[in-house]
Amino acid sequence: MPVGDPAQPTRITSSPAVLAEAAALFANASVSSFPSLGNHHRLLYLRLPYRSNASSAPRQRAVSRLRVPFQTLPSDESLLAAFRASLRSFLLAHRLRRRDTNVAAVMGDLAGLLGRPRRFPTCAVVGNSGILLGSGRGAQIDAHDLVIRLNNARVAGYAADVGAKTSLSFVNSNVLHYCAVRSAITTPGCACHPYGRAVPMAMYVCQPAHLLDALICNATATPASPFPLLVTDARLDALCARITKYYSLRRFVATTGEPPSNWTTRHDERYFHYSSGLQAVVMALGACDEVSLFGFGKAAGAKHHYHTNQKKELDLHDYEAEYQFYHDLQARPEAVPFVDEAPGFKVPPVKLYW
What we know:
The protein is an alpha/beta fold. It is built from ten helices and ten strands. The protein has helices at 16-28, 76-95, 108-114, 138-142, 159-162, 173-183, 210-219, 234-256, 276-287, 319-331; strands at residues 30-35, 42-50, 59-68, 120-126, 146-150, 168-172, 201-204, 229-231, 288-294, 350-353. The strands form two sheets. It has a seven-stranded parallel sheet with strand order 8-7-6-5-4-9-10. A three-stranded antiparallel sheet has the order 1-2-3. Strand 1 (30-35) and strand 2 form a beta hairpin. Helix 2 crosses helix 7 (210-219). The chain is globular, with a radius of gyration of 21 Å. The model is unreliable at 1-13 (pLDDT under 50). Keywords: Glycoprotein, Glycosyltransferase, Golgi apparatus, Membrane, Signal-anchor, Transferase, Transmembrane, Transmembrane helix. One of its GO terms (molecular function) is sialyltransferase activity. Belongs to the glycosyltransferase 29 family.
């Protein structure tokens, strides 16, 4: 059963709370599985010890519950060892990351995943805003060399407005968790590539427990049913967090007249987070010679997502601040902070389309 809402990327990846969660899982997590009723699959539990109070004996609580196939998956012991190794790499990358904001430099793994050693001439990042409905932008989007879509948004039935071509699916790890637990029972490699199994997925980790989902999907993959997956670089995560907070602070001061120190009265830093769209855009800056943005914005009466009935924006994002970032990328890229810290990096031309 899924834990959490796939639309809710919960925290800034490199925040102290997330690193503490990863450290606790690394030190104390256990993995155990049991046959399901009827022996159709295994029920796998990721657990952590806890105490209800200082004097009580430690008990185990389930951090994640998954249904997994009997075949192809390693033993509980092997899976736990692989999970701890993944957590170790995650912790090292986020604790020891250099202040290296060269977005082009962190594109190496992405280029390998896409099978292309060089930058792409033209890229389209397709947001999920309802402003795309009726836009007729589909053919224009599909004409780009690289098309990035967000959180496995549907294209069937919307191709005239959002296009049909997909080169890369960019998701937060809640999306992987949500679809993996439903599909791993029957579909080798997890049915989490709605655009076809040849389309790779790039994922940022918003809950360290979701690294287990990635391991399970990779373990159940086969040559005939691959699962091309890349976890985003810690430096890219950190850069996106810095950009997002900068624009949110700037907007807060401009709209309220209050000092930046009061920003935390509006935004809880434990949960404040950049959107999937913003990180996909920053990734594209490092991989593309020209970047086009579609479906980033809102209008009166427009749905929040073109493919869902969600009406309200998530409080953990500051969408208005992110829109200011996108406008700066287009109109005055020299004003965009932090990316100029990378020697020789220049923001490519960016164009916003509604």
